[in-house]
Write the structure tokens for this entry.
Amino acid sequence: MAGKRLRRFGLRRAGIAGALSLLAAVAIWTAPAADAIANGRDVPDGKYTFSAALSMPLITRPDGTTYASACSGSLIAPSWIATAGHCLHDGGGTRISGPPAYEVRVTVGRATLSGSGGQTRQAVEVRQSPTVDFALVRLNSPINGITPLRLNRVAPRVGTVIRVAGWGSRDSTADLSHRPDRMQTGLARITSLTANHVRTRGFAPSPDTSACPYDSGAPYFRELLTSTVLISTEVGGPDCPHAQDETTARIDTIYSWIMTQLRS
């Protein structure tokens, strides 16, 4: 997976406030290191319950062979998950809209894949963004009792530190056996913006804290006093771990499109 790659379907404000924010972010990271998100941390039970694990146990390729895969995502409305557009395809890699071509199992509300609790739903519809590698996934029934992420509506600032949480592999190996049981998290700093993307780079626990295979669609978010705001979603980057820029899909520039879909 050399160079800029899509993650396999299967992170300053100026002045005193900004300085305090960075100090607080660094202070969080005092526990021993974990394996994934590469050089990230284990997520404690009950945290980031809006994070979604997408599991695709049986995908059929055009030649008739099958394989299993996975992605990450986030709850943005009771019946809707935000993820990467390339996670939902026809088995041959072509992105789809409408009903998925295979089972897509979505679990939210728990920090481990194997544990109890949380809520599991089935994906029944996919809606692809026309401008960026981003998709909405509609669930067969609403998620209850979990607060969805708020959507960012304004351009994020370069230098801002944001958090990512995902269900990706331990390393750059695209093999589900390398996917840890517990959700992983880390911090990243926004390095630049384009019309459709937010570029980020690892910040904590390490400069090479970075997304790995199966982190596609993982949320990058800001934890505010009154809410948690989705800034962008994982698209791809160099093999993990790395200390280079990661590419994420920018939410504020597709906010209107997302809201139109959620209301329809």
Summary: DSSP finds two helices and 15 strands in the chain.
